[in-house]
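We emphasize that the prediction below concerns an isolated chain of 294 residues; any contacts that depend on oligomerization or on bound cofactors are therefore not represented. The input was used exactly as deposited, without trimming of termini.
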Amino acid sequence: AGGAQPLLAAAWCDGPLLRGAPALASTLLVAVVPPLVVVGPTAAAIGAAVAALSQLLAVGAFAAVQRCFTAGEGAMMALMSALLIVDAAVVTSCTVADIGPALCVARGEAATASEAVACGGLLLALLLLALCGPPRPAATGWRAVRFAALALTFTGVVLAPWLGLLVGAEPIGWVVRFFVQPTRLAIAAGWVAAIVVVSALAARVAPAVVHPTAGGDGEAGGADGSDGAGAAATKARRQRARLLLTRKLYHFLAVALFAPAALLERDFLQLCMAGALAVFLLLEAVRVCGVAPL
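Result of the prediction step, given as a token string:
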């Protein structure tokens, strides 16, 4: 296991992801020249920033959590994260000072707040991954305290003031006013009910994990074991059917969660999905850093 990590890292960075000065130069060339010719220097500068940041994320931050996704998924995540961070920087610059009509496009409060929440969660996760170091079981309790303190400090000192700047209001009051509306509260209640019902059904339908050493199906039949093999095949078919039904239940849950909100309250759905993404990134940082009890 000790020698596998460098090999994994080498395969990660030498595969679909670009590495080294020549690769970075070719990436910048592709990202800068077409926007410079077609649009202008501003678009070229943004393209250069996105390309450089995506390279940094691909061979740096996301390489550290390579087991979370494949190399291709990591490359796409790095590019999308770079686009999100650069666009958030542009939106913040437009809020502080007018940097030109070509960049300062009018956006709704929900869209601006959603980008701040998603980008804030991403930056917090990257910061925690950079500072946590390798997991050490003997220090998990103290690490959990530091992890929570850093997350709370970043949220209170950086994310909340940033959100208030973008929406032009006190952040906590704005979030409360945004959520406390009859339709949105009804949608949230429906989400909770759907999650509880579908999760309970899935727990009953999901097949139990059967260990190879748990039974003796192959020895329960006749002399040639044909009866035992048939019983094992029947059990396998039933487990596949139950697993398929479990997956369909979660597909139904996705439709129940997204369809009503997409039709009635798209701004509400947008902000909630941004918040869910931020929580997911934080939990992934907790997992990768080995923070107790996760």
